[in-house]
């Protein structure tokens, strides 16, 4: 392999699919957003310097929703790599957290859009679509099955090819 293949910067991020009974909390991204306007995604964001992925998901969840999640009710369900399309590649960890109440301490309006609770089985038929990588992994995320995914992106950020592998017990 040539050195050029390793020259791209890598960003790390987390997303948290918060579940209360049979509903999941999603962010309906605003039409003003540069990336994925009017699409659904989970609350989350970048991993900051000096923190690990689990610390990042707790911080991002609290910053975006006001919810202080219980780490013993939070589970890693997916590790996703996005290559191409963006200026940098991405490593994303998807988590699921279970909460006992749908109360959002910071309210439902955020600078990124509107937080909405949707029945898990109606998300894929909701008028706003999930972001592409989450749409590809939705069933695994909701089943809380650990998976590893690699998505190759086109210049328009659409998925060119994908590979998803389930982590299975030996």
Structure summary:
It contains two helices and ten strands. The protein has helices at residues 53-65, 132-143; strands at residues 10-20, 23-29, 40-41, 44-46, 74-83, 89-98, 109-110, 113-119, 147-153, 159-166.
Written account of the structure:
15% of the residues lie in helices and 39% in strands. It has a single domain, classed as Nucleoside Triphosphate Pyrophosphohydrolase. The chain has two helices and ten strands; from the N terminus they run E-E-E-E-H-E-E-E-E-H-E-E. Strands 1, 2, 3, 4, 5, 6, 7, 8, 9 and 10 form a ten-stranded mixed sheet that branches. It is mostly beta strands and 170 residues long.
CATH C-level class is: Alpha Beta
What percentage of amino acids are in beta strands? Answer: 35-45%
Order of helices and strands: EEEEHEEEEHEE
If classified by CATH, what would the architecture be? Alpha-Beta Complex
Assign the structural class, choosing from mainly alpha, mainly beta, alpha/beta, alpha+beta, or little secondary structure. mainly beta
User: Mind telling me the C-alpha Rg?
Assistant: 16 Å
Number of strand elements: 10
CATH homologous group name: Nucleoside Triphosphate Pyrophosphohydrolase
- Residue windows where pLDDT falls under 50 for at least 5 positions: none
CATH topology-level fold name: Nucleoside Triphosphate Pyrophosphohydrolase
The overall number of domains is: 1
> Helical region count?
2
Query: First CA to last CA: what distance?
Result: 32 Å
Indicate the mean pLDDT.
Answer: 91
* Shape call: globular
Question: Largest beta sheet, briefly?
Answer: 10 strands, mixed
**Helical content (DSSP H or I, runs of 4+):** 10-25%
């Amino acid at each position: 392999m040539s050195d050029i293949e390793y020259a791209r910067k890598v960003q790390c991020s987390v997303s948290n699919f918060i579940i209360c009974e049979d509903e999941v909390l999603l962010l309906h991204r605003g039409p003003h957003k540069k990336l994925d306007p009017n699409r659904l995604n989970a609350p989350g964001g970048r991993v900051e310097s000096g923190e690990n992925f689990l610390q990042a998901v707790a911080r991002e969840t609290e910053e975006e929703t006001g919810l202080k999640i219980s780490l013993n009710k939070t589970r890693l369900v997916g590790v996703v790599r996005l290559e191409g399309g963006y200026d940098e590649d991405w490593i994303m960890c998807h988590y699921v957290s279970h909460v006992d109440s749908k109360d959002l301490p910071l309210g439902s309006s955020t600078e990124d859009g509107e937080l909405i609770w949707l029945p898990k089985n109606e998300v894929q038929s909701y008028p706003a679509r999930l972001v592409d990588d989450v749409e590809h992994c939705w069933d695994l995320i909701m089943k809380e099955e650990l998976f590893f995914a690699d998505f190759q992106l086109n210049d328009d950020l659409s998925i060119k090819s994908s590979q998803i592998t389930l982590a299975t017990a030996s």
